[in-house]
Specification:
Number of helices: 3
CATH class: Mainly Beta
Strand content: 35-45%
Distance between the termini: 33 Å
Largest sheet: 10 strands, mixed
CATH topology: Jelly Rolls
Radius of gyration: 22 Å
Helix content: 10-25%
Structural class: mainly beta
């Protein structure tokens, strides 16, 4: 971690088989009665859709599985599973808030975010260098004006695109506006998809401070992974696939924060895309959830 500030020969065979089948059925019924709903869902292979089943087969690490929407001692406050065929505009805005300015050389376009197969897809494309839209297009989605939360758990299940010049992010930003305080729930540079970046920023526009860090993790561009933040009055904890990887005790924010998710291109940290960067580049999001105390 890095811190910066067998068989029988008689007619008894069919009887034995029938008894075995009956016994198996009885066992299954008992198990389904005992198991919690979330465990039953997991045993069936996910949320019930073909897309979710395919995603679950991609990884074997327990932490990358969908843990469900029940967490002891917590209440689900926000949940988008992206199960429709279009973005839910009643909770998401596909536009950048006036303030802050999001880093990168991309032009935000509303058609760069789609929903299919139980996922949201933020797509970055290379355009004609002389296009009025600029050399790259991508998308941002936020809950500015529709949802904000103070403290709790903020969780995303995703797969990032690998490649130089790409930087997918999930950030919490302050109400009513501004860039600080902010919490980077997810930040990864496409050229280094096995390094998760973390940041807590506070202060004011004239004197801002931050506590940042990084940790080597599984390749976040291979299969789906879960990153979560646990934020309370005293601390912020970051988890990658169920394992705590970073924490911050300084500058903990105490105000509502809205959700902002985007795919940056040619940012200061990611650098410029090169000939190895594949476009279109897709940031896949399986779900985004938040939980709070009762």
């Amino acid at each position: 971690m890095h811190y910066y500030y067998k068989r029988a020969k008689s007619a008894k065979v069919s009887v034995t088989v029938a008894l075995s089948a009956a016994l198996l059925s009885a066992v299954l019924i008992i198990l389904m009665a005992v198991l919690p709903i979330d465990a039953q869902t997991a045993a069936k292979g996910g949320r019930g859709s073909a897309a979710a089943g395919a995603q679950s087969a991609e990884t074997t690490t327990a932490g990358t599985r969908d843990p469900g929407t029940r967490i002891a001692g917590r209440v689900l406050k926000f949940d988008d599973e992206f199960d429709g065929d279009a973005l839910n505009y009643s909770i998401w805005s596909p536009h950048e808030p006036g303030n802050p300015a999001i880093a990168g050389d991309q032009q935000w376009t509303t058609d760069a975010v789609t929903v299919s197969g139980g996922q949201a897809h933020i797509v970055a494309r290379r355009t004609n260098a002389h296009s009025p839209q600029g050399q790259f297009t991508s998308a941002i989605i936020t809950t500015f004006g529709t949802f904000a939360q103070t403290y709790g758990r903020f969780e995303i299940r995703f797969r990032i695109p690998a490649g130089r010049g790409l930087e997918p992010r999930f950030r919490l930003l302050p109400i009513p506006s501004g860039e600080i305080p902010s919490i980077d729930v997810l930040d990864v540079v496409g050229s280094d998809p096995s390094t998760a970046l973390f940041a807590n920023r506070w202060g004011d526009e004239k004197a801002d401070r931050d506590y940042t860090g990084s940790h080597k993790v599984a390749d976040l561009s291979t299969g789906f992974h879960i990153v979560a933040v646990e934020w309370d009055e005293e601390k912020i904890l970051w988890f990658v696939d169920g394992v705590e990887r970073f924490h911050s005790f300084d500058g903990v924010p105490h105000q509502p924060m809205y959700l902002a998710v985007w795919l940056g291109v040619n940012t200061e940290r990611s650098g410029e895309p090169d000939e190895t960067t594949r476009f279109p580049a897709v940031f896949d999001i399986d779900y985004i959830r938040t939980f709070a105390r009762p």
